Amino acid sequence: MAIKLRSYNFKKDYERVGKFLLNNYKIQTAIPFNWCQPRWEYMHFHPYMDERDLYDVLNKIGIWEDKGKIVGVVHFEDELGQAYFEYSPDYLFLKKEMLDYALQNLGKELESGRKFIKVFVNEFDKEFEELVKKEKFTKDSKSSEINSSMKISLKKLKYSLPKRFNIQSLADENDLTKLHRILHRGFNHQGEPLPEGIEGRKKMQSAPNYNKSLNIVAVEPKNGNYVSICGSWYDSVNNFVYIEPVATNPDYRFLGLGKAVVLEAIKRNYEIGATLALVGSFQDFYKAIGFKYYFTNNCWVKYF
After folding, report:
1. Which InterPro entries has this protein been placed in (predicted)?
2. CATH superfamily of 3-145+297-303
3. So where are the chain's domains?
4. Regarding beta strands 82-87 and 115-122, do their DSSP bridges make them parallel or antiparallel, or are they unpaired?
């Protein structure tokens, strides 16, 4: 095999890596070991990419190719100091090389001059777990990522809505000021959002697979404000929906609005072919809706 390692190029490789993730997701076992493509897309078009100057360091992502075919990727998500590993099932022998690459290229420097890195390893990947242990990583359970899933059926998608609220999609109305405010308030930021943040909302909506009709909001008719939101991303190759983000204005919580927007989003994805819903969380909120535990990506940290 003539396997080559090179740096990631956003313009050249973004879609290619996305297709690699799509193709490797559907041939996996019941427990995925790679990211799904929607998470890759969400990462690249999130406002933090500009806010944290992450486009400038995308070239630190490593790509392994065999005769021009992508067979492995090592990357961060929202900051340096993270490493996620994506690989083809036929190239699992690259794990040690990929871990070495992460240590050399994706660490984050501290004020003391030392570096640290957090790597994320599927709980069922015992081979990779042994590799990180040999490299003196320590498990950081608080930073581990728990995932849950729900097999979709119509009987699971029923919800009730307080009479004074309406449910609609961003295809019905796409008011970026209202959208910016619910995402600001819904993630517990105080006060009113800065108007320049609206550009970040436009950025997210420029993602190739962003579908306004699958982004659902609850609306307060008295003022027209969006008071709860569920974003969703449909993978038509593997027939699932990835739920991200979900947020409710603190002034409107415990009214069933979060449940309503999530189930409405899942319903609309079900109508176009989704059979499974995925979310990167296992909070009680999702368990109450019907999500079940799926798997955990354990976090392992090393200071060096």
Report:
1. Acyl_CoA_acyltransferase (IPR016181), GNAT_dom (IPR000182)
2. Gcn5-related N-acetyltransferase (GNAT) (3.40.630.30)
3. 3-145+297-303, 153-274
4. parallel
Tokens of 94: 């690259």
Residue 87's DSSP bridge partners are 72
User: Which among 197, 186, 202 has a CA at the least distance from the CA of 245?
Assistant: 186
Q: What is the mean pLDDT of residues 238-250?
A: 98
The runs of H, that is alpha helices, within 122-175 are: 126-134
Residue 269 confidence (pLDDT) above 80: yes
Phi, psi (degrees; rounded to nearest 5) at 73: -145, 135
Q: What mean pLDDT is predicted for residues 34-43?
A: 98
Asked if residue 272 has pLDDT above 80, the reply is yes
The whole-model pTM stands at 0.96
The closest alpha carbon to 82, from 117, 43, 39, belongs to: 117
What was the pLDDT predicted at 143?
98
Residue 110 corresponds to which tokens in the numbers above?
């501290």
Contact 122, 31 (CB under 8 A): yes
The contacts of residue 111 (CB under 8 Å, 6+ apart) are: none
Which stretches does DSSP call E strand in 1-94? Answer: 3-7, 62-66, 69-75, 82-87
Q: Taking 70 as the threshold, does the pLDDT of residue 28 lie above it?
A: no
- β-bridge mates for residue 120, sequence order: 299
pLDDT given at position 32: 86
Domain 153-274 annotated CATH 3.20.170.30: no
Give the residue from 197, 201, 219 showing the smallest Cα distance to 210.
201
Q: Which amino acid is at 111?
A: E
